[in-house]
Amino acid sequence: MNFSIKVQYGIQAALELAKKFNAGPVQIGDIARSQMIPVRYLEQLLLILKRRHLLSSLRGKEGGYNLAKHPSDISVLEVIEALDGPINLTNKRLKKYPVLFELFENLQNNIKDSLKETTLEDLIFRVSKKERAYIYNYNI
Questions:
Q1: Domain limits, the chain
Q2: CA-based Rg of the chain, rounded to a whole angstrom?
Q3: C-alpha distances out from residue 2 to 7, 13, 80, 89, 92, Å
Q4: Confidence (pTM)
Q5: Could you tell me the sign of the dihedral formed by the alpha carbons of 83, 80, 78, 111, in that order?
Q6: What is the CATH number of domain 5-138?
Q7: Which span out of 54-63, 95-104, 110-119 was modeled with the highest average pLDDT?
Q8: pLDDT tens-digit profile of 41-67?
Q9: Under a CB-based contact definition with an 8 Å cutoff, are residues 90 and 104 in contact?
């Protein structure tokens, strides 16, 4: 199972917006530069996330994008499914092999549960924890 580059870039962009949650709108160019995402591609991803009500936008010189909800209220699963659709490890043909179907269905449910429980806020916390560990180790 591989997540598309669309999902990777979408989560990166959402994380960037989550880091700057109360700082006002973030311009596409700033997100693209900090996350090294092509601007044209990023525009498309942000529009998809906006249509799914995960982002809001403000037009004009001081405009840009914001998260539509608090980072603790947006799960990684929501971002993934907004960009790529539902996670599916099973199909109709697999039902012919009940043992395999059950195995993959359980895996699918575990993956979805884990992604649903992980919020953008959780990821920000993990990033800051790793950055602090790096700084601490660097000074030794």
A1: 5-138
A2: 18
A3: 10, 19, 12, 11, 20
A4: 0.86
A5: positive
A6: 1.10.10.10
A7: 110-119
A8: 999 999 999 999 999 999 988 899 999
A9: yes
